[in-house]
Amino acid sequence: MRRYGVVVAKHGKKNHILSNESLLYMLEWAVTEPNIVDAVTPSPETSLPLLQLVLLFNDKALKNFALGHQSYKTADQVDRLQAMVLGLSFPQSDLQNRNFPQLFQTQNHKLALMLEYMERTPKYEKLYAKMLEDFHCTDKLDLFQALGKAVVSGINKKGGWTILEVAPGPEYEKRIDFLNCLSIFPTQAIVKNETEEKEVTPNDFKELRKKPLLRLEEDKYQVLNEMFLTKFAYNGVAFHLSGIVKAEPNIYLSGDSFPGHWRQDFSEGELTYGVYQTIFNGQPAELLTGEMFKQKGLIDSEPDHFTRRGNTIFLTESKDVFIPADVKMSYSYDKITSTLSQNDKGKRDRFGKAVFQLAKNIGRMARHELPVNAYNVEDIEVFPILLVHDSLYSAPGLNYWVERLFRKEMSDLKKLPEFNNVVFPTAHPVTMIEIDTLLLFQDNFNNGSLDLENLLRKYHKYINQPAGAISSQAQAEAHITKTAEPFSDFVTKYVHQQLLEVDDNTFTQLLEKIGLK
Fold it and tell me: Its domain of life (predicted)?
């Protein structure tokens, strides 16, 4: 990192970076390459002009882009433009500056829920204590406040590099210890773990996600990436937990996969169920989780969440999943969609498995095989929801592709002999919803200023509007952009247009619960 600092010192900070991706590749190289010369003053042998240095890494991004561009040609003519939008947007979807205030609130909301849940759950007692020890914190409030201060201080509204300085005071040493946990030390190159590289985690720029700060001096730190620092509040802490279990397997009671159990226990059982409870609290709704269905004897492809309000059913599959970095950053429509739909053996996986289960449970409803309260099939409307847990999956064009996948599963299901002459409920298009969207607006859904069914109807009407007469390339691009818009962006825009104030009552109560008055 000093090598890069030398280049900046020589050529200034006003040089423009061609792409965020190129800069991240360069930073990743700088912290993982042990053979970089550590220079204090610039010289022709130890530094390159900043623009030349970035261009070296920009070539990597452009090469992936060029290879990925060929994959769009394999899509059907009707889907080709959507394939191009998805291939271009997917690698960048969780790297872009989306909405820092919203991201900050949802990350902190999930962090507070996580800390409160781990503290009261015996299964995670030892892991919780070890996590606090690693971050040099005494309790959940201590950790929550330390992360909050780091993120707030690290978001620069003026542009350029952000420098965090720790002021002298009674908390000086404690804050230094905490920030060091989030920091790369310039004199120590990070050695990549080959086993970790093969794991299915968000391992693009993994070392920068794990350590979003660079320690410049004893009390001075440089923010390497504001997005990674902001998402460390929940995502980074969650992956730190995985690292603890990997290093100390006995600290976690279950012998099975920790990530799998965490998704089931927290992502689905605590986070998602809690959000649905808030959204439909006070409404005459039937709400069942996957665990409840298992208790009723349904143990094969049971819905993750089933919510019925009158004749409207929200059928939800929750997927807290990731894909390998080389696939994500490939810009290849073929690689991205193939990996999101099946595993290496060609079996349904990730979203492919999710839409199969959505279709299967709609089929169960048609045959009255789902253990829920009585209903008349002809009167039922089903809104299939694929609930995702990372902003990566709010990529433009992804909902379009998932809906195509879902419709094929429904078509194949209806061709099975057991469904001859069977009446199906009305199944609306599948909607990919980011958990952060529901988390942020859950109290607005609860107080009636927003309605989930109404928003879903408006969203699909909006993205499926006919193009009409198109007389220019700009009009064509605008139409494709609209049809590819993710639900999260649509809702945020809708709230803004309606001049609605975000109700954060649940978050406020949670902060009081963890001790923040």
Answer: Bacteria
